[in-house]
Amino acid sequence: xLKCNNHFTKTFYVTLFSLFxxxxxxxxxxxxxxxxxxxxxxxYKVKAEQIGRHREFVARTQAFKEADLRARxxxxxxxxxxxxxxxxxxxxLLLKIDPANYxxxxxxxxxxxxxxxxxxxxxxxxxxxxxxxxxxxxxxQSDFDRLTTEESQAKASVRSAQAALTxxxxxxxxxxxxxxxxxxxxxxxxxxxxxxxxTSDALARLTVTDPIYVSFQVEEExxxxxxxxxxxxxxxSGVKADxxxxxxxxxxxxxxxxxxxxxxxxxxxxxxxxxxAKFANSNGIILPGLFVTLIIESQxxxxxxxxxxxxxxxxxxxxxxxxxxxxxxxxxxxxxxxRRINAMWVVLEGLEEGEQVVIEGLQKVRPGxxxxxxxxxxxxxxxxxxxxxxxxxxxxxxx
Length: 399
Description:
Layout: H1 2-35, E1 40-45, E2 47-69, E3 75-80, E4 87-88, E5 93-97, H2 100-134, H3 141-173, E6 176-178, E7 183-185, E8 195-196, E9 204-219, H4 220-232, E10 241-246, E11 257-262, E12 272-279, E13 291-308, E14 313-315, E15 318-324, E16 330-334, E17 336-341, E18 344-349, E19 356-360, E20 372-375, E21 377-378, E22 385-386
Parallel strand pairs: 1-20
Antiparallel strand pairs: 1-19, 2-9, 2-13, 3-5, 3-8, 4-7, 5-6, 7-9, 9-12, 10-13, 11-12, 13-18, 14-15, 15-16, 15-19, 17-18, 21-22
Helix pairs in contact: 2-3
């Protein structure tokens, strides 16, 4: 009887201990979840900037000045006095064609002029004597007329010989090809030893790229609006606008531009007008023939919020960002975005200056979750997120 009671007692205590342990485990698990810290996310404090109305155009760069160097006389190319791609001075000797043949032709032309001048002088003397004799009847009228004709022909022969001499001098001068202006010279198409002439392709091309032209097309409706605004502006310079370039590597060119030329006709079948802008290019970064994006922005600005590209997400409903409110709770906010400026988007609707958006740790959070926001800086040009907060992004004491 005692043995049975002992067995019952052990069984009772084991069961009681198991129930107590299960209750303790089930109660402690929610407490551990409540004690877990909120996830840390990087946030950016939205700032506003002065932004104007803008349009973007696909454009192409053109040299400010260019000239194809061509052979104007035929002969063997015997000298080259420049390095391809180098800068050359105005009047610098660039190429030389064998002048021997043209020197001989020049000598022949000079001798011909001397001969014709001698004949002219003789004809003048003969006519002078005839004038003295015709009044006394010592010479007939027909002989006098013949001498007059010979004098006229001799003078014409001299003029013809002098023209041939001038042509020979020009041909000889064309054997030396000089730089018509200062600029950079490109690839040589004919090496020394080649026979070149007026029918040959360009020997090389000389260009000036500072400043550089940027040519683009605008719709006729937009161009008419521009002309009307220019007329109504009341200023000599017309409507004021800022011109900038975005290069093919998606970087912004740091020199401002200005409108330089507008064509005087509408392209038939296209309904566009060609316009041209001019940009300084002292460092030679922009080469002729590049496809670039020309951005024209009005000088009348308005304050608009800017958000980093890293903060923007896309859903079926459109673009949105995750905003951290004053209680450090994440909220999803749909936004309407405008133009992209380097690594930043202009916000048309949905965000205001001073709000904080998540830029790192997006995969950790969802709307309604509490987070630990860490303020970061974003490079507006590259989009790089900085570990240290810059001075202009440090929250003020009143924030």
